[in-house]
UniProtKB/TrEMBL annotation, chains A, B, C, D:
Gene Ontology MF: a single term: acyltransferase activity, transferring groups other than amino-acyl groups
InterPro entries per UniProt: Acyl_CoA_acyltransferase, Bact_Acetyltransf, GNAT_dom
CDD domains named among the record's database cross-references: NAT_SF (cd04301)
Name recorded for this polypeptide: GNAT family N-acetyltransferase
PROSITE patterns per UniProt: GNAT
Source organism superkingdom: Bacteria
Length: 149, 149, 149, 149
């Protein structure tokens, strides 16, 4: 018997749950970031007046089981801005239960309401586990990323 | 004998030169956009108070020979915003003369001055001509783009 | 017999009607502005993705009879941004018919929907005609403006 | 013998000094604000990537003796944004030593560097102590503020 998953916008009270999820997510990319970034990033994602940085957290019972972060930015080819899904994470224990898909669908729904329905993200080509999901909810393009350094 | 290349920020007087360059660029992607988008996009790139949409145009003698467009957006992992080089174009006649490289370096220099030196862009994996240049001025990552539709 | 007043957001097709209204408004303040500002300001107020500069125009039959411009900005004392009603104008022929009041109420309604219901504006203390209306729809404060120059 | 006044941009380490100054400033306006606003406002004024909310704090020896907060916003009559000096405070013990004037001049200098030199603020008409200073560094206009509520 499992409790239902509920997804809601990040709020100030989520600070410690969020830190833990984001740390695990960053560890997947062999990254950690200084405390100042945790503080700054959390303040940005939870500032109710910002509409360029948005986040949601998934709860199952009393456990925080996933998060998604979105960056909204202008686009030279479009009237409306676009929605860049920057971070997506589900805890190992909660995988295979549709949490990641539900988080992506939360982003899609919010993007539609806000009139910036063009959503995209980047993923490593060899991340087959993630791509198995992405191929069901989005389209793999032939665009790759170049980075100055 | 050729005249020197000069690169400067897009300005209201560049309207018709810019339209022609951007149209040719979009044609490379088998795209065209309605007139309203040309109007809106040009107004945005030439609004001196916007710092999230920036453009430069390259001139050689009396000819407009290239353009670059940049989108600046927030980043959840960084204090400073990042610089997304969205569009880069050189006219066929002006290729092989370093115009594209000079445009990228203009973006790099501007990004450094503005304190958002993390510059990136997306390109099609099979665009070998472009990638020959990109491999000299940037790093090819293993990130690919997924798009909602 | 008069036709009804309709108020709608400024759109690209309003360019010439808007220019004429705004010029007359500026003339009241013994100001005119160069053409570049007209171009830039109109482009800003009609960019559908901007949410910090908004405008509405009032039509009666085929005549443009009024306009209102709003600037949205952050506020250090509040979670939400605030709504600064910067410009309000009714053509002389249309005065006394509730156009100005309807424009203010349009701003109020939009501000409420957007969750930034704190609306304010500045007016000259001796503008008794305008103040007769303002005293009915808002509160005269004892704050005055200082300007660097 | 007194130590020199130094003014610098608000930074994360100023949190408790800032809270105390801002609380005293708000008390002058017979206002207090909930803790969430203190948190949110401090996070906004100290986010290095925001350019629409800026603050400075004045130190004398080990004492925080003043603060100034600035809101930057678009202006329909101008190419560049304008600089709204929203809050200005000096501790009672430090008055008469030029702290407030130095804070205003800091704002002027920053505004000039950023190309948005039009600085303004609002003050109560009967605040004679403040106005004695303001009349020396700025121009009293005949504009008064109306507020929706």
């Amino acid at each position: 018997m499992t409790s239902e998953i509920s997804i809601r916008p990040l709020a100030p009270g989520d600070r410690s749950a969020w830190r833990s999820l984001w740390r695990d997510y960053l560890a997947f990319y062999e990254t950690d970031l200084p405390d100042e970034i945790y503080e700054l990033t959390f303040a940005r994602y939870t500032d109710p007046a910002r509409n360029d940085m948005l986040g949601w957290i998934a709860w199952q019972g009393g456990d925080a089981v996933g998060l998604v972060h979105v960056i909204v930015h202008a686009h030279g080819w479009k009237v409306a801005p676009v929605t860049y899904l920057q971070d997506l994470f589900t805890t190992p224990a909660a995988r295979g239960k549709g949490v990641a898909r539900a988080l992506i669908e939360t982003v899609y729904a919010d993007a539609d309401v806000a009139g910036r329905g063009a959503v995209y993200w980047l993923t490593q080509t060899d991340n087959t586990a993630a791509r198995a999901l992405y191929d069901r909810v989005a389209i793999a393009t032939d665009f790759m990323k170049y980075s100055r350094s």
